[in-house]
Amino acid sequence: MGRMLQKVKYLKAVMVFLFILGIAFSMDVIAQKNVTAVGIQFKPMIPNQVFRSTSKTVSENLVDFSTKQSFGYAFGMVIRHGFTENWSVEGGINYVKRNISLTAI
After folding, report:
1. Backbone angles phi, psi at 65, to 5 degrees
2. Tell me: the pLDDT tens digits for 45-63?
3. Predicted TM-score (pTM) of this structure
4. How far apart are CA 82 and CA 33, in angstroms?
């Protein structure tokens, strides 16, 4: 349980850092007034060791199991509308396909 708590704290710290970084860089960004943009996106999800998403072995309640993530993808559509020079709204929908195998040891 302690290791999981450390990971949650680490993730929270990273999210706060990225939020602050995003605010710092958005000060110079100006939205486009009365412009609507529509786009599609495709994102491959490649497992790598940097994000610790390759494989994991866990032992819980006297059961040992292993997970392994394979290539996955996400695709979708985004719509953005600028109301003023400083405010715009963006929304969209995505489909995410993750390929994770679970093996009992």
Report:
1. -145, 160
2. 887 776 666 677 888 888 8
3. 0.51
4. 5
Helices within 40-92 (DSSP H only): none
Cα–Cα distance measured from residue 92 to residue 90, given in angstroms and rounded to the nearest whole number: 7
- Please, are residues 92 and 78 in contact by the beta-carbon 8 Å criterion? yes
What residues are paired with 103 via a beta bridge? 66
pLDDT at 81 over 80: yes
For the chain, report the end-to-end CA distance as a whole number of angstroms.
21
Amino acid at 42: F
35: which DSSP letter?
Answer: -
Nearest to 95 by CA among 47, 41, 55: 41
Task: Dihedral sign for Cα 18, 56, 53, 77, please.
Answer: negative
Which candidate, 67, 68, 65, 69, places its Cα nearest to that of 105?
A: 65
Alpha carbon distance 102, 98 (integer Å):
13
Cα(55)–Cα(47) distance, integer angstroms: 9
